[in-house]
Design goal:
By secondary structure, the chain is of the alpha+beta class. The protein is built from five helices and three strands, in the order H-E-H-H-H-E-E-H. A three-stranded mixed beta sheet has the order 1-3-2. The structure holds adenosine-5'-triphosphate and magnesium ion.
Length: 121
């Protein structure tokens, strides 16, 4: 039985904070791992172009990323990969190209989006 109750229902938890370095990624990794450890099936969707959640969970090969999903070039099922060390925990990994998706998908009104992550030429 799920710790969320007997009804089979998908829960979506968003970890977001405008301030940097406050533990968003650490919380996502640890909460996801803890929920998987008690039997939940967990999918982390890494929307940060830094890709730290992907790296932190040991996912280095990222042929398909959240950018491909958000831009309609891949499905979640195609993009998700199981994490190598935690059973029941999968991730849709992010890459630095996700930065461009931020600019393309949510252009700011009258402003520009800075990208701290360098993109390959
Ligand atoms: N509960 C905690 N106690 C102490 N240090 C923590 C805790 N949670 C996270 N940290 C540390 O704080 C730093 C920033 O954490 P993290 O990378 O998770 O933040 P973030 O909000 O995802 O940052 P960013 O905005 O750059 O993505 C890391 O060095 C991490 O190890
Ligand atoms: Mg982070």
């Amino acid at each position: 039985m799920s710790i969320f109750g007997s009804r089979q229902r998908t829960r979506v938890l968003a970890l977001a904070n405008q301030k940097g370095g406050v533990g968003k990624t650490t919380t996502a990794i640890n909460l996801g791992t803890a929920l998987a450890a008690v039997g939940e099936r967990v999918l982390i969707i890494d929307l940060d172009p830094q890709g730290n959640a992907s790296t932190g969970l040991g996912v280095d090969q990222r042929p398909i990323s959240t950018f491909d999903v958000l831009s309609g070039h891949a499905t979640i099922m195609q993009a998700m990969v199981p994490t190598p060390n935690v059973p029941r925990l999968s991730i849709v990994p992010a890459t630095s190209t996700s930065c461009h998706s931020s600019a393309r998908l949510a252009p700011p009104a009258g402003g520009t989006i800075g990208c701290a992550t360098a993109s390959p030429p």
